[in-house]
Structure formats: C-alpha cells, structure tokens
Amino acid sequence: MRRGNWHMIRQRRIGCISSKTQPTALKTYWTNGLRAEKYHKLGEMGAIPGEFKEVGNEEQKATYLLNETKIFGREEDRDEIIKFLIRASGPDFATIAIVGPEGMGKTTLAGYIYNNVRVKTHFKKRMWVSLSSNIQVNRLAENIIAAADETYNRPSDPLHCLHDAMRGKRFLLILDNVWNEHIVRWDLLKATLEGGASGSRVVVTTRDQNAAVITSTDHPYTLSSLSDEACLSIFSSKAFHGRSETSELSTLKTIGKEIVKKCKGNPLAAEAVGNVMLFKRTEEEWLSVLQGEILDVPDITKADILSYDNYPSHLKPCFAYFSLFPKGHTLSRDVLIKLWMAQNFFIPRSGKEEEEIGRDYFNELLRHSLFREIKKDSDGRVIQCIMHDLPHMLAQFVAKGEFCTTEIERFDSGLFQGRHLSLIVNNNNVASPTPIRFPKPGNVRTLLVFSQAGVEVELQLSHLINPLIHLRALDLSGTSIKWLPNSIENLKLLRYLNLSGSCIEEVPKSVTSLRNLQTLNLNRCQRLHKLSKGISKMVSLRHLEIEETDKLVYLPKGIGQLSSLWTLSKFTVDEMGKGCKMGELSNLNLLRGNLEMRNLGKVERREDAESAELKNKQFLRSLLLDFESNAKEEDGTMLENGEMKKMESVLMGLGPPHANLKELKICNYMGSVLPSWMEDSPFSSLVQLNLHSCRKFKQLPALGKLPSLKILKIQGNEGLEVVGHEFYGGSNTAFPSLKELSFISLTNWEEWNLGVEDGTTKKVMPSLQELYIQDCPKLEGLLGHPPDSL
Q1: Which of 286, 377, 556, 639 has the fewest Cβ atoms within 10 angstroms?
Q2: Shortest CA distance to 473 belongs to which of 53, 59, 34?
Q3: Quick one: 402-552 is in which CATH superfamily?
Q4: H or E element that contains 309
Q5: How far apart (Å, rounded) are the C-alpha atoms in residues 14 and 23?
Q6: Residues 6+ away with beta carbon under 8 Å from 465
C-alpha cells in the first residue's frame, strides 16, 4: 500500500496554552431609584442579593479577556515589560510588579502583555490568576495549577503539586490584584515556582508599594498618569462611538477636551465619564457635566457617582446588590440573574422570560465598564467577571442602610435593620466559630454566607430560619451543614436556595412545601444521596442544579411534572426501581443548557428511549448520553450479543436530538454500530462531538457531512481498524469547519485513508488546525496528505 509523506505517526502531546460630603444628587437618586417605588410593583421590593458562592470562593483561572483592540498611551510601558519578560539574558526566574493607584490601567496593561503574540510564542505555559483579599497560599497554588490546565489531587500537598506541574517548563504567571497580606508567604510560593525552566517569569499587579518591592526581582514598574491626549483617546472611543461628524459634534469635542483634563490622567475615570457622555447629545448637557462639582473632586469615585447618576432606574437595585459580595470575588452572570429574580427586580416585557430580561440587565451594566471580563461562553457572551474595586465601593456607598456585609463574629443581629445581609467566614473564625442567630422576626430578604474553602461554619439553623419569614434568597454554599430543619417549610417566600458544596446528605420533604422556590442549587454536594418524594409539588421550580453529585443515583418520580424546569443538570434513569423513567423527560421541553443522561444501559427498549422525545428539546445546547450501567464487562468476558443489540436500539431511539444541539458526547456505549442519525442533515448545527469509551463500533458514520462540526474527539475503542472514505461522506468537501481532531487510545486502528478514493482526492478538512494522535500503537501511517491548514 502506497503511503503519504508521513511514514510514521509520532505520538505527541501538545501543551495547552493554555468625600467628605455626600452629594445631594446621590441621596436623591438613592431614594428615588432604590427605595421609593418598591420597584415595578412585581411584589414587595425586598433584598438586593449578591453573589454566587460556588464560584465566589474560587479565584479566577481563565485567560484574561480584553474588551479593546487598541491600547491607549501605554505602548512604551507594554514594550518595556515585554522586553523584560522575553530577554535572553538575566536571571533564570524573575518577577516584575506593575504598581499604581486604582484605575491606572495595571490589569489592562497586563492583559495586553499576556495576549501579545511574542509572549504567547515565548512561553510554553501561560497562567492568569486574580486574587481576592483573603486567599491563602495553598488555595493560590491550587488555582495556579488549574489555570495551567494541570490535574490536581486535592488531598495531596498543593505546593508540591505546583512544583511538579511547573518543573522544566518555561511559564508566564500573572498574579492580578496582589495586596500586602498576600506576601506573607511569598518566599514559599516563589521557591515553589523556581522549579520552572530558565526564563520563567511572574508579573504582579498591585496598588501596594510594599507588596511591589517585596515581590519584584528588580525595581517595581510604576505606572504614571496618562497624558491628556491618551485620556482623550479613551474618552472619545466611548463618548463619540457611532456618531457622524457634524458641527455640533465638533463643539462637543471641544468641551470633551476640558472634561478629560478633570480626569487627571486616570484612564478608568476617562472611560467611565466617556460612557456617560455617549448618552448626552446636547451642548447644554455637556456643559452641565463640565461645570458640575463632581469632576472637580480628585477621587475617581466621583466619576463613578456621575455614572451611577445616569443609570436607568431599573438597574439601580441590581447595581446596589453587588455590595453584598466580597471585593475581588468572581461574579457569575447566571447566579446574579437568579438572585435578582428572587427579589422581583425585573420589569416584565412581552414575550421575554425573566432570565432573558436578567441577561439584558447584566449586559447593560457590563457596558458601563463596571467589570473586568474573565470568561465568555462559546458564543462570545460574558458569563463571569470581577467588579472593579471603585465601582464596588460605590455599590457599598449607595446601599448603606439596606445592605450589610460583615465578618460573622462582628455581626450584631440586634442592631441590623436592613433587608440584605452577607456574612464572611474566614480563618479568623476557625478557632471559635460563631453561631448565627436572629433573636426576633425581621424583614431580611437576603442572607448570603461566604465561607473560605476548608473553614467550617457553625450554623444553628433552627434559630437562623424561624425569624426569617420574609427571606427570598438563602445561600449556605460551602458550609458544613449536614441537614435542613423542618422549619424551612415556613420560608414561604423563598425563591433561591443554594446549598452547593455543603455536606448535606438528603433534601427533606419539608423543602417540597416551598411552592415559590425557583432555584435549588445542590452542585458538588458529594454526600447527597437522596431528593425527597413530592418534588412534583414545587411548581415554580425552574433550576434544579445537581452537577457533581455522584451519590445521587436516581431522581424521584414526579420530575416530569415540573414543566417550567429550565435547568436539570443530570437525569439518571431508573427503569426498574423507584426512580425516574425515560418518559418523565417528555414534558420537559423548556430545558436549556446542558443535560447529562446517565445509566442508559438500564433502558430495555427502543420505545422507552423514544419516550424521552429529545427531538423536542429545542433549547438544549449540550447533551451527554452515558450507557455506563450495563456497559461494563465482567471479568473480561464479552457482552452478550443481545445486550449489544439492545444498546444499538436504544441509541437509535434517542435520536436525532433537536437540530439546535451544539455539543454531543456519547460514553460507554457497547454497540458495534453507530446510529445513522449522527450523519443526518437535520443534525447540521452540531459543533462538537465526543465518542468516549465506545469500545465496540467498527466503522465511523459519515461525519464529514456535518457542516458545522469544529471539534471531533474519538477515544477508547478497540473495534475500529480502518478509517476510510466512508468517514467523509459523499460531498466533495468533507468536514468543512473541522478545526480540532483527536484520536486517542484506539488500540487496533491500523489505517487512515485521508480522502483517497478511486484515484481521486477529496477536499478533506480544509480548516483543520490541531491533530492529536495518542496511544494508537498499530497505526503505521496515512494514505494521503494532512491538510495544509494544520
């Protein structure tokens, strides 16, 4: 057999690149905007909840995302720091600290450097970690490991694991927002990181001069104020966006130059004021801002006050809610929306669900430059962010009286008269944890408990719950609670209950009496083994979150009656026992996001599979089909032919899912053939396909016909021997959108035909950029040539 240019396939692992006076105007807006109207009369206003917890206690691990495509006034700073990072001479390991006051652009500058092409090429590993004020060195080590896309076994020593992960690799680490308290164990962290390859670098951003001096190998790099010209560029990019050139615009530009001078070289101030001026169209409005007293106050917070002054009324309670979150915590868009929903903050809009309105509100706040974006979904929408420090201070300022955020041992429930409360538990509380008590009924609408990882929280829940009869949002995530008292059924107004990461073992029957509950978050409850019967009574439930709950082996009957359900993280089939059968999915056609279907090996008939009616789940974007229950072989013996045929029939009956599906993963399937619907044109929106531990199939479907497929991963198969022309389908261009292709652990794969058929060559994978081949010992080479795009 004639081979192509590749005579041998080398197995290769590719590293993942991975003031003193309070302005009267502010008081007026606070009264009118937040307290007066009881907001939209959707119900009594209640609290302004705050953060997430399951994400809030984790530092940022994702790549820093830039909003802008151009850097203003920092080109020289950028080039100097990059020169330091990639120079051939110098110490094997070095740290540089970028230091300057709030709003000077330290994080933005670091972000440009992080994403610079030369930097990307120079460093094998790049990691970005944002720090909160109370993070400990072990936790920081864990987050650096995660940012490097390395695995970590939690019981082991994180510093030792970090040393191993970095050993021999030239890396760049950005530690964003470092404070003085973070440097107590700096020498320990530095010693751990010094195991990397020569040329490894750490960039620290900080406002603390002491922290900058201690962490820098050389002198800290101090950011000075920007020139008025650079600030004007920033201001103009916001204030004049989309405006055509007119004589009136020329007048506004002249006024704008004078406004920018009052920003005193602070880029964040220039950006914040620019965002405000975008919505002011007349010369009179611009002169009013220029002549006003707010910009004459040197504190940048006054610029933020100006921005808040111009928020539409419906955003003000949502903004004030941010005051409940500790500074520097990662904010999850979806968690924020669910908390806002619980407080009736949304003005109804015809044809829009509350969650959709919430996303509009979030995006509006995002446009006010309040946040640093840190994670986007596959469609480019921001789903995680961190609030800038000064907007966070503003949120706390405008929320005084209604909101309180304090450490748990300092909380005096007898003095608290507000409606929204968040309590912080940290290492200072460990020696003698303080129980939370509310001695008398009150109007508390939000209670959030933020506990640091590994810190136990003593909660006398019966004393906690009984007085809180008006509570709408309760977050006890990450605490050590093991049970809920029956008195929780008295929280008739409760709409949001977050127990994620807790030690709870069972959700009691009393919870099913919460008829107004919209969100029940049980993610990462590793001890949870049972949901109560009667769950069908929870008619308002929209989000049942049960990810990473391995001991929860079945769902109670009645799930199918929750026709308003949007989120169901996992559906575990129990056709023969007391749990849900497949048919319970038939009415859940509003399900969105991700759905994991497990124990499909227990399904006996194709008709049972068809009863799930996946074809009607038009809002699902990701689907996992796991056959693991009956997929395991006993003592190495083969499954009986009848079992294999049953699986083939069941998988055929499950599809095709709705054409809107973007991601599909099939695991532990033991059939010898794959269903034909995987290559059908109604399945044309699929972007990612993963066949994992599907060990017996002998031929791949014509997946080349799927026009939108970008990622294809086939892992763990012993039946496939040849990948031939049938893999590409009948069209002249196969896999037109495919960018990443992986073949892993295909133990008997011998031959790969790259589109050669009857003497002609198809146009195969014209967009392919990454090819992974690993643990395929019998593969000798390719028939044909890999695409030039690789």
Answers
A1: 377
A2: 53
A3: Ribonuclease Inhibitor (3.80.10.10)
A4: helix 301-309
A5: 57
A6: 471, 485, 487, 488, 490, 491
- The closest of 705, 698, 696 to 678, measured between CA atoms, is 705
In this structure, what DSSP letter does residue 32 have? I
Strands (E), 508-558: 519-521, 530-531, 543-545
- Counted residue by residue, the chain has a size of 790
* Residue 719 in tokens: 């039946």
Instruction: With H, G, I as helix, E, B as strand and everything else as coil, classify residue 94.
Output: strand
State pLDDT tens for residues 63-101.
Answer: 445 544 467 888 899 999 999 998 866 678 899 999 887
Q: Is the peptide bond before 656 cis (omega within 30 degrees of 0)?
A: yes
225 CB-near residues (< 8 Å, 6+ apart): 104, 264, 265, 266
Per residue in 274-306, pLDDT tens? 877 877 778 888 887 787 655 554 454 555 565
Q: Which pair of tokens denotes residue 250?
A: 């020329």
Q: What's the CA gap between 724 and 37, in Å, rounded?
A: 68
Domain residues of the chain, as ranges?
Answer: 75-222, 402-552
Q: What DSSP designation does 731 have?
A: S
pLDDT digits (tens, 9 = 90+) for 227-238: 889 999 988 988
Q: Report domain 75-222's class.
A: alpha beta
Of the candidates 607, 646, 608, 642, the one whose C-alpha atom is nearest the C-alpha of residue 627 is 646
- Residue 267 tokens read as 């880029």
Q: What is the DSSP letter of 622?
A: E
Q: Please name the residue that has the structure tokens 């004393």.
A: 463
Q: What is the pTM of this model?
A: 0.67
Classify residue 320 by its DSSP letter: H
Q: Across-strand partners of 62?
A: none
d(CA 514, CA 539): 9
Torsion of CA 229, 233, 238, 241, to 10 degrees: 130
